[in-house]
Amino acid sequence: MGEQIAETRMRRPVITARAAATFEPVGRSVASARTFVRDTLQGWGLTDIVDDAVVLTSELVTNAVVHSGTAADVVCVRAETGARIEVTDRYPERELPLQTTSRPISNPDREGGRGLLLCAALASRWGVEYTATHKQVWFQLEFPDRLAGTRSAGPALPAEALPVTDARVRVAVTQIDRTGLISAWNDDAQELFGYAAEQIIGKPLTDLAAWPHTPGTGTGVAEALQLSRWEGSYGIRGADGRVIPVYASHLRVRDADGDPSTVCLLVRERERAVLQSPQRAPGADAADSAERGPAADAFEVSIGSPAPDDLDGLLQRTVERARDMLDGDAAYLLLATDDETELEVRASTGLTSARQRFARVPVEAGTGRYGSARMPAVHEDLSIVPGAVPLLANTGLRSVVTVPLKVEGRLTGSLGVASESAGRYSNEEALRLQFAADRIALAVERARLTELERLRRNSLSFLVEASDLLAGTLDRDQTLALMAQMTVPTLANWCAVYTVADPASDPELSYVLHEDEERIDGLKALLTKIEPPEQVRTGGALLWTAPSQAAHAAALRTSLRGLSLGDAARPSSGPSASLATASAVGGETVVLPLVARNRVIGMLTLGKSTDGHFRQENLELAEDLSRRAALALDNARLYSERTAISQSLQRSLLPPELPDVTGVEVEVIYRAAGEGNEVGGDFYDLFPIRDGAYGFAIGDVCGTGPEAAAVTGLARHALRLLAREGFGGPAVLERLNTAILDEGARSRFLTLLYGELWPQEDGSAELKVVCAGHPLPLRLRQDGSVEPAAEPQPLLGVMEDLELYEQTVTLDPGDVLLCVTDGVTERREGARMLGDDGLVEVLTTCTGLTAGAVASRVLRAVERFAAQPPSDDMAILAMRVPERHDA
Predict the structure, then answer these.
(1) Which of 699, 701, 655, 656 is nearest to 679 (CA)?
(2) How many other CB atoms are there within 10 angstroms of residue 386's CB atom?
(3) Dist CA 719 CA 736 (whole Å)
(4) DSSP β-ladder status, 792-793 and 765-772
(5) How far is CA 799 from the centre of its chain?
(6) Residue 344 in contact with residue 363, Cβ under 8 Å?
(7) pLDDT by residue (tens digit) across 578-606?
């Protein structure tokens, strides 16, 4: 048993680093958790797995803090073989979605519950652990096997299958210093290239290298010499002027002084197996290449070895080498879509700008179909069959040879070379081009799949960030701005959002954004003048040509008008502004419907500038974004409507204005807690009863929302009606108590301070008050003493047959009567509470202040008592009888 335990311990991964954090159950915690995991893994140098870890953490923390509503503990553990992320919540009884025959697995496209599905898709290992108090979901991502300097060991092969070399393999060794100059040159280099060491040392390598490099599309010699490790093919110009194809291996090193330099090992291209890593699988192809000689791989030599993720560089170099190999005037390369029904332009050379990248043509059927994609084809004269190659229509090119790119029999693309001369190509050129296409097809497919995977991960990260941003606001205008800012310039050059108030309303232009801020006003003016796009429910992006047509028409009219006026009278900003707007919207424009809760609430319009086209991947990403944005926009609309209704109802429950009371200063401060979407339960009132008499009240209904609002409205209006009918204070409250109880299940108990105020001729004021379960009113005398001005009595809405009584209070000149709701006295900071004693202490400092100053000082004291915003409504009513000299 002891040996088994020891063996188990030895097999456990060794933890080399650990980081942990706890996130509160609020929406912003999701972004904080992503930042925590990203910073932790990047700090450990694990950049290869950061994106997957961030996406998975985002989903799992969302499940914990949003759906479960509990805090989330996130732990990052780094072991020898991978990184493990653990997310723990306090809701262990949540359902685990398992795939069984009786219950289908959840839809991965829904808004929530995708965390475990993503774990299964992206993680090396994952699991769920339950205890009585929590649930933990963990996943592990393995480190990629990319150790520098490793080589793969090939199997033992018979002698006839080994690569063929010369009698002596020469490996040229040269060293390049930090400035790009050759500092070392061995004997094999002299034998291979014909230069003696004294002729070459001190010269730049770029003087010798025949580098197949198109600026901006791949790695050049200067860049390659700066990389820590690089392998690839290029040519070296020998002493006799001929270009010698070589295979090179570069290694960046530092000398004893710490200065960096690059060691270059070079062999003949046909002997690349000596240096290449991983080792090529030799076989019949090796023997064939030996028979064909050094020039057999000329096409692949000129392409070189691009980086795995440099698809654009590989495609651009391919079309340029294909054009040069067949001495053509133009060349192009198209890649097939996943369903092989369309071909997409990805690289071209020698064609006009109108042949844009990412334009698509159908393969099998339809207008402008590409009928020669699956087999090699030679078109001797396109003027005879003008529609044979739609991409070359109206280009002046006459003859073209096209060949397919295939991997395992599946069409992956098409490569074409064209010439301005008719009859330029024959079957011999088609075979040469097909041979070149076969040699590059697999590399292109690998690079394409790498690009697709990168785009998929980037799209997923983009949607996660977009969902988080959209969920972080309920403001309509801010939601519109976020929709536009997330699409420009990531998906489009400009964006316009139309909103629809109701099904019978026309779309309204609500927001416009262009990547060039100077174009926004012109774009907005253009879109205002044209009819908005039609409302559509169908998914997908629909083309909309009206903006580009209107912009070009306006630019043409402005230019003609300027010409007719002459240069002297031409407006300085007219033609240029119109032409700039036409250029800004001159490309493709698409419209995506914003559908939320089975209703079209708007349209998201995306546009390209100057003949630009959208990639299908970007359109699909825009569709996903539009669905999330539509729901966020509708939520903002509903929230705004609810807030407006709540605020309107809250205003209706408070008096529109306070009457002027002769001889008495009155000040009221009311503060509603929350975000404005709930009606508060606190209220106040001051109203004339008859000549010289005023009624006042301050109350607090239990709870908030519509039920509390109903009792508040009943209380305020009943008080006024009963008081003006001549009932005294106890009778008013007893009848109000009966009315509240008559509400049955909708009733709420109510604390209420009600009184009647009579200013006296001698400058004092007489009050009769009834305090039904409410915080007692406080009387501040001129000498600074504070005392309760009433006795507590039962609250309303609880029991029948109340027997209430009123108490008489006389306010002498300079006295203050302060009435508050429990939002003041129950203000908390941790375990501390302001309380009645704290309020008395504040009031003792208010001697000699006006009623307004007393109310303001109490409010400041309440706000400063705690750092957090108040969580309860507050009402403060202060009445003061001024002294004789005040009047």
Answers:
(1) 701
(2) 12
(3) 7
(4) parallel
(5) 56
(6) no
(7) 566 666 677 788 888 888 888 888 888 88
Name 768's bridge partners. 756, 808
The token pair at 121 is 């898709």
User: Which residues, 6+ apart, have CB-to-CB distance to 770 below 8 Å?
Assistant: 729, 730, 733, 752, 753, 754, 755, 790, 793, 804, 805, 806, 807
| Identity of the residue numbered 524 | K
Please classify residue 89 by burial: count the beta carbons closer than 10 Å to its beta carbon, then call 0-12 exposed, 13-18 middle and 19+ buried: buried
Is beta strand 82-89 parallel, antiparallel or unpaired with respect to 135-142?
Answer: antiparallel
- Residue 235, token pair as written in the block: 């040519």
State the Cα–Cα distance between residues 701 and 873, nearest whole angstrom. Answer: 11
Q: Supply the DSSP string of 816-835, one letter for each residue.
A: EEEEE-HHHHT-EETTEE-H
CA angle 478, 483, 486 (to 5 degrees): 115
Residue 429 corresponds to which amino acid?
E
Burial string for 828-851 (b: 16+ CB within 10 Å, else e) reads eeeeeebeeebbbebbeebbebbb
Structure tokens of 841? 């202490």
User: For residues 531 and 534, what is the distance between their CA atoms, to the nearest angstrom?
Assistant: 9
pLDDT of residue 188: 93
Q: Name residues whose C-beta falls within 8 Å of residue 70's C-beta, 6 or more positions apart in sequence.
A: 25, 64, 89, 90, 91
Farthest-apart Cα atoms in the chain, separation: 129
State pLDDT tens for residues 157-209: 677 767 777 778 899 999 998 888 999 999 999 999 999 999 999 998 888 88
Residue 678, CA distances (Å) to 75, 669, 743 in order: 38, 19, 21
145: phi then psi, degrees, rounded to nearest 5:
-85, 85
Could you tell me the end-to-end alpha-carbon distance of the chain, in angstroms, rounded to an integer?
Answer: 97
Q: Give the separation between CA 628 and CA 111, rounded to whole angstroms.
A: 9
Distances (CA, A) of 703 to 24, 89, 246, 710, 837: 26, 30, 83, 11, 25
Cα separation, 497 vs 511, in Å, equals 5
CB atoms within 10 A of CB 142: 14
Cα separation of 570 and 554, whole Å?
16
Distances in Å between the alpha carbon of 743 and those of 707, 711, 747? 10, 9, 5
Tens of pLDDT, residues 293-307: 444 444 554 454 455
- DSSP 8-state secondary structure symbol assigned to residue 873: -
Q: Are 673 and 655 in contact (CB under 8 A)?
A: no
Counting every residue, how long is the chain?
887
Closest CA to 373 of 329, 430, 334: 334
Phi, psi of 210 (to 5 degrees): -95, 90
Type of residue numbered 421: S
Residue 695 has phi, psi (to 5 degrees) of -105, 145
Residue 409: what residue type? G
- DSSP for 410-461, please give it: EEEEEEEEEESSTT---HHHHHHHHHHHHHHHHHHHHHHHHHHHHHHHHHHH
Q: Which residue has the tokens 């006459």?
A: 398
Q: Kindly report whether the peptide bond that precedes residue 759 is cis, defined as omega within 30 degrees of 0.
A: no
How far from 289 is each of 240, 283, 361, 520, 781, CA to CA, in Å? 25, 10, 37, 60, 110
- Nearby residues of 753 by Cβ (< 8 Å), 6 or more positions away: 697, 698, 699, 769, 770, 771, 772, 774, 775, 777, 790, 819
Among 579, 580, 586, CA closest to 607: 586
Q: Name the residue among 185, 35, 61 with its Cα closest to residue 114.
A: 61
pTM, to two decimals: 0.48
Write the DSSP string, 146-164: --TT--PPPPP--GGGSPP
What is the SS3 assignment for 570?
Answer: coil
Predicted pLDDT of residue 156: 63
Of residues 876, 847, 873, 845, the one with CA closest to residue 859: 876
Backbone φ and ψ of 326, nearest 5° = -100, 10
